[in-house]
Specification:
β9 (about 215), α8 and β10 form a beta-alpha-beta unit. The longest helix is centred in the N-terminal third of the chain and has 19 residues, at about 45-60. The chain contains 8 helices and 10 strands. α1 packs parallel to α2 and α4 (about 105-110) runs antiparallel to α8. The protein has about 250 residues and is of the alpha/beta class. Strands 3-2-1-4-5-10-9-6-7-8 form a 10-stranded mixed β-sheet, sandwiched between helices. The protein is globular, with a radius of gyration of 18 Å.
């Protein structure tokens, strides 16, 4: 995790995202590229002044290498996407306000070609010990899709729960061999739950197992993704009160 892109609006959600990055990725000494997309009603000098306070409160104490950029090329989403294309970050981290994911969060996980970590403003845990990966247990053709999950689990010495919600009583064993290849060095456990309500079952599992991060696969890498990915992932992003790592 050498380069992390962090769009900031200089709110408490942005500050909390910094804390999360320091706690989880600080040992890797990543380079932080912070961008603020200027709105038409914002004053440039005021933004710079507010950033100075943000810098003193969060960035300087973090001791991480960082750069700050104010963009005003186009819209919010297009400026973020342009930065991703120009800088090729390993991860995009976004602080979300309140428990529910923002409209920006839901839009980003649809358009970006970069893994996205969404961090709720009220999430204050400092240790990642349990990660849930919700998937459909089919073969994955592109192993690079799981790399951020594997790296995070190894970095934090975290256990990964490979979670599948069945709407019937089918078994999930036929997919374990392919996943074992990618998770060989990670402590992990397969979990199959039969339920008609996939989203609620995932949320219940997060609560019961005290999951620190939920991971989902957005792209179709050999059909290994959540069913009805657009609607379901959007709902998960909206309702999850733990960080959601969106793999691509």
């Amino acid at each position: 995790m050498q380069k992390i892109l962090l769009p900031i609006d200089l709110s408490p959600a942005s500050e909390n995202a910094i804390d999360f990055i320091v706690d989880v990725f600080g040992a890797l000494r990543p380079h932080l590229h912070l961008i603020h997309v200027k709105r038409s009603d914002e004053n440039l000098e005021e933004i710079k002044e507010i950033f100075k306070q943000f810098e003193e409160n969060k960035l300087i104490p973090s001791r991480l290498n960082y750069q700050f950029e104010i963009t005003k090329k186009g819209g919010l989403l297009s400026d973020i996407q342009s930065t991703i294309e120009a800088e090729s970050p390993d991860l995009l981290v976004l602080g979300t306000r309140g428990i529910n994911g923002s409209t920006l969060s839901k839009a980003l996980v649809k358009i970006t070609d970069c893994p996205v970590m969404l961090v709720p403003e009220n999430y204050k845990e400092t240790k990642v010990k349990r990660i849930a990966y919700a998937n459909d247990f089919y073969d994955i053709k592109n192993s690079a899709a799981l790399k951020p999950l594997m790296n995070l689990a190894m970095l934090m010495k975290a256990k990964v729960y490979l979670l599948h919600i069945n709407r019937d009583n089918r078994t999930c064993d036929n997919a374990e061999a392919s996943l074992e290849y990618y998770l060989d060095y990670v402590d992990h456990e397969y979990v199959c739950i039969t339920s008609e309500d996939v989203e609620q079952s995932i949320m219940n599992f997060i609560k019961e197992k005290k999951i620190d991060i939920l991971t989902v696969l957005l792209r179709d890498h050999g059909s290994n993704r959540l069913e009805s990915e657009g609607r379901l992932v959007k709902n998960i992003v909206t309702h999850s009160n733990v960080p959601v790592l969106n793999l691509v």
